[in-house]
Amino acid sequence: MYRAKKIKTDDKQLFYKTVNKLLIGQVCYESDWLAQLANASALLGHQMDEINWVGFYLLKNDELVLGPFQGKPACTHIPIGKGVCGTAAEKRKTILVPDVHEFPGHIACDAASQSEIVVPILKDGELKGVLDIDSPIKNRFDEEDKKGLEEFVQILAENVHWENIC
């Protein structure tokens, strides 16, 4: 059972060190991929400030398909190479967008979103999906978020039972 209180700190390194420890506790003892990703999105949704959407898009049939998330209803299918999520998946690198209105081809699922970060999930070099986080504030995400969220995704890459995703 999740019992952690909200992490209260302005130190992003400490924040991500703590949230990533919480993630390890959640995913290492669970074997169901859906439960793992659902709790991972809930963990970030509960702990991160100034966000309006957090969740996963999973690679299925050469496109990204909506997975577990926290927030308003979202786009369900995203082609590889389209929008921030599809671009991060295609390039297999994290994309940090300070202002989504300046990103060519941005897919607006929630009009409140102003900035975004998308981290690809790679397991043994193979794309499994992306972690997508939106904020209603411009310039919400920085290099510390990028580093901390890449570590978060690496924990997932190593512990989620990807072979069971249909």
TrEMBL record:
Entries under Gene3D superfamilies matching the protein: 3.30.450.40
UniProt cross-references to PANTHER family, sorted A to Z: FREE METHIONINE-R-SULFOXIDE REDUCTASE, GAF/PUTATIVE CYTOSKELETAL PROTEIN
MF-aspect GO terms: L-methionine-(R)-S-oxide reductase activity
Native source species: Anoxybacter fermentans
Residue ranges annotated for the GAF domain, each copy included: 32-161
Domain of life: Bacteria
Protein name: GAF domain-containing protein
Family: Belongs to the free Met sulfoxide reductase family.
Listed GO CC annotations: cytosol
